[in-house]
Amino acid sequence: MKYVLMFVETEQFAKELEAMGELEQRQAYEAVGRWFADNAEVITHHVHLAPVHTATTLRLDGAEPMATDGPYMEGKEVVSGFAEVEVADLDEALKVARSWPACPIVEIRPAS
User: Fold this and answer.
1) With 90 as the cut, is the pLDDT of residue 56 above it?
2) C-alpha atoms less than 13 angstroms from C-alpha of 80 in its C-beta half-sphere
3) Smallest Cα–Cα separation from 84: which of 8, 2, 17?
């Protein structure tokens, strides 16, 4: 089965990452790189998204489509990236997600 693991960054996590020294930040990014390497056999695709302020939202629920700068809604949590994994079942997707070393929230959804 395919699942998408969405990595959700919180305001607190972003502040803590920004407050880290250069060495600590490098170690944090290296941990993420190791996670991708350790799980390469099940990851079929992954993307790191640009910061939320670069988003454009297209609303299709009016008479005419309307594009606006910025995210659809403001929040304290934003999806900062995702990985698609192909695993046997949800339990295996959860096992992969539990070892994620960065953002404090991982949302898991089946993909078709």
Assistant:
1) no
2) 15
3) 2
* 103/29 Cα distance (integer angstroms): 11
pLDDT top residue among 8 and 68: 8
Sheet holding 2-10, edge to edge: 43-48, 77-86, 2-10, 105-111
Residues 6+ apart with CB under 8 A from 101: 28, 31, 32, 34, 35
Please report the pLDDT score of residue 78 as a whole number: 86
Instruction: Quote the pTM value.
Output: 0.85
Q: Which tokens belong to 57?
A: 């939202």
Question: What is the band of 74 on the pLDDT scale with cuts at 50, 70, 90?
Answer: low
pLDDT for 112: 87
Largest CA distance in the chain: 52
Q: Is the dihedral of CA 62, 81, 98, 28 positive or negative?
A: negative
CB-based contact 79:13 (threshold 8 Å): no
